[in-house]
Amino acid sequence: MPVVCLVGPTAAGKSELALALAKKLNGEIISCDSMQIYRGIDIASGKPTKTQSRRIKHHLIDILKSSREYNAARFQAEAKKIIKKIHQQGKLPLLVGGTGLYLRALLDGLFKGPGQSIAWRRKFYQQAQKHGPAYLHQKLQKIDPEAARSIHPHDLRRIVRALEVYQTTKQPISELRKKTEGLRADYDWFIFGLNRPRHELYQRIERRVESMFRRGLAAEIKRLSRQKISQTAQALLGYKEISGWLNGEYSKEKAKELLKRNTRHYAKRQLSWFRKEKDLEWIEIREWDNPKLVANKIIALLADQLTS
RNA sequence: GCCGGGAUAGCUCAGGUAGUAGAGCGCGGCCCUGAAAAGGCCGGCGUCCCCAGUGCAAGUCUGGGUCCCGGCA
């Protein structure tokens, strides 16, 4: 059974293209996006509008309160079920989004290990604060030299994760990582990466940030920050940039500038992640390309690959 | 017009006592397995405004010029 994926950097135009594809292919869209999961994060996460999502069924959008944590494992489990269900209905699952880790978790799986342990994390971060990150890295060196080699001494987040896994399982993470199971072999995957010339992508980011401000980004962030907000949701691009402005640390213009810059950096990281994705076919589009025609082109590519 | 200050990497600027240049940011590349819109790593030969002079040697000293920014007229 086929699964079509459409990934790529933010602001490349994935959502619009996905809608055109879903319509022509009798598909349903599964969002592969760590922020669109949340209710109330609409403008900032670039969610499709209600009129858009009414026409085509969208999954994994608006399923969680912003106070709740989310992660790749949950995504994997939920997406798995939805893919199956869509196939049962005789439709085509269309996975769309920019969260590279989520896609990889689905394709190649995650190792069978424990989830996050808040208690251990807190403890290790306290230790890092006191003795520096190098101290934790040395600790890791002792219990799991292989992991220590692959994790940079400054990359505290991964060091802590490795230590936390060891504490709860007494097994080195480097061993656990060797056993993963994904869905790569279970379906025929067609993975497309949407991209544009860098300067055009950056122009689109610029315009998108401007339009977010016009549509009420500040009010949305204000609303979010008044409630309890999870660590996952707090990572939202725009959250800290806008909060700084609202708290009077800098001007609105500065906030805009920061958000634009950080979004560019994010897009760059996404590209570098997707370049490594196996069997991904890049679709390079330009400003003047019509999404419907691009959709046709992709469908032609699909037909091609199905027959060969 | 006069008096100060300045002209060095895309931008903002560092560069005692002269020995052919650096830092932040931007920008580019990369890493990534249960927080991923997060987190981490790497990358700088550039007419040092121009001309002349003194030095073995001049962003660095001397003289002249050009432009910019303040203040006073």
Structural overview:
With 308 residues, the chain is α/β, with parallel strands linked by helices. The protein folds into two domains: 2-110 and 181-307, 3-Layer(aba) Sandwich (Rossmann fold), CATH 3.40.50; 118-176, Histone, subunit A. Helices cover 56% and strands 10% of the residues. It has helices at residues 14-25, 50-55, 72-88, 100-108, 118-131, 133-143, 145-150, 156-169, 173-176, 198-215, 217-226, 231-234, 239-246, 252-274, 291-307, and strands spanning 2-7, 27-31, 58-59, 92-96, 188-195, 280-284. Strands 3-2-4-1-5-6 form a six-stranded parallel β-sheet, sandwiched between helices. Helix 1 packs across helix 15 (291-307). It binds one RNA strand of 73 nucleotides through helix 3, helix 4, helix 8, helix 12 and helix 14.
Give the key terms.
6 strands; Rossmann fold; single chain; alpha/beta; 308 residues; globular; 2 domains; six-stranded parallel sheet; RNA-binding; 15 helices; Histone, subunit A
Q: Topology, pairings included?
A:
Elements: E1 2-7, H1 14-25, E2 27-31, H2 50-55, E3 58-59, H3 72-88, E4 92-96, H4 100-108, H5 118-131, H6 133-143, H7 145-150, H8 156-169, H9 173-176, E5 188-195, H10 198-215, H11 217-226, H12 231-234, H13 239-246, H14 252-274, E6 280-284, H15 291-307
Parallel strand pairs: 1-4, 1-5, 2-3, 2-4, 5-6
Helix pairs in contact: 1-15, 3-4, 5-6, 5-8, 6-8, 10-14, 11-13, 13-14
This protein binds one RNA strand of 73 nucleotides through helix 3, helix 4, helix 8, helix 12 and helix 14.
In short:
By secondary structure, the protein is an alpha/beta fold.
